[in-house]
Amino acid sequence: MFIMTSPPTVSLCCSPLATAPLSEQDADDLAGVLRALADPVRLRLVSLIYASASDEVCACDFPALVDRKQSTVSHHLSQLVKAGLINREQRGKWAWFTIDEARFASLCRVLDTRCG
Amino acid sequence: MFIMTSPPTVSLCCSPLATAPLSEQDADDLAGVLRALADPVRLRLVSLIYASASDEVCACDFPALVDRKQSTVSHHLSQLVKAGLINREQRGKWAWFTIDEARFASLCRVLDTRCG
DNA sequence: TTATCATATCGACAGTTGTCGATTCGTTAA
DNA sequence: TTAACGAATCGACAACTGTCGATATGATAA
Question: Using CB atoms, which residue from B31, B46, B113 is nearest to A39?
Answer without folding.
Answer: B31
